[in-house]
Write a structure and sequence with these properties.
mainly alpha, 10 helices
């Protein structure tokens, strides 16, 4: 009886959480200032559901059957993994840099809602690459508002931290784009005239 009640309670709260998302999207700034207090099962299920839906939509736009199938399993897990990793990062950053201990579930909740712009932008990011950066910048802004209002973190340190993360992301994307457009640059550097001569002599010797 107790397990059935828990399942029923979870279903009711999870449906409430889904209905809360449209209200959050209407005014994300206000939403980050007044985050709900949900239990872990609801938070995990909601993060996985967001990752699944956005991952599936991105795969459908890519018109790849393999991506559609794999996203069903990979997208929810990767969304959860990223949230837990960054929650741990912010937990220890607040602990050692900001000198304050913040509830881990509260940090996870902030990242859940702040991840919505990134997840939405990732749907069309393969078609419009720059929109991915806009999603990251929007998520950083939401985190700034949420951590400032709910955690009362030092605003100066918080700005430096979040801007640093956004810049690091931008530099990483630029580096990947350069590597993608010049995949054989390392090979060209290694293929000097001297190395080509040595290779030709070795081939002639084998004959």
């Amino acid at each position: 009886m107790e397990s059935s009640w828990n399942a029923k309670h979870f279903k009711e709260v999870f449906l409430q959480a889904l209905l809360a998302l449209p209200r959050f999207l209407k005014n994300p700034i206000h939403g980050m200032r007044d985050l709900p207090e949900w239990d872990w099962p609801v938070l995990i299920a909601l993060q996985a559901a967001l990752g699944l839906v956005c991952g599936l939509l991105a795969a459908i736009l890519s018109r790849s059957l393999i991506m559609i199938i794999t996203s069903i399993f990979i997208a929810p897990l990767s969304s959860l993994a990223v949230n837990f990793i960054f929650s741990g990062f912010f937990y220890y950053t607040f602990l050692f840099v900001f000198r304050q201990e913040v509830n881990f579930k509260l940090i996870f909740t902030h990242l859940l809602f702040a991840s919505i712009p990134v997840l939405l932008c990732n749907i069309v990011a393969p078609l419009i690459p720059p929109i991915g950066f806009l999603g990251v910048a929007a998520s950083a802004l939401l985190l700034y508002v949420g951590f400032r209002e709910n955690v009362h973190a030092d605003e100066k340190k918080l700005r430096v931290l979040l801007i640093g993360l956004v810049v690091f992301y931008l530099l990483t994307v630029i580096a990947q784009m350069i590597r993608f457009h010049h995949p054989n640059s390392d090979l060209k550097i290694r293929a000097t005239p001297e190395s080509i001569d040595i290779l030709e002599k070795e081939l002639q010797g084998d004959r």
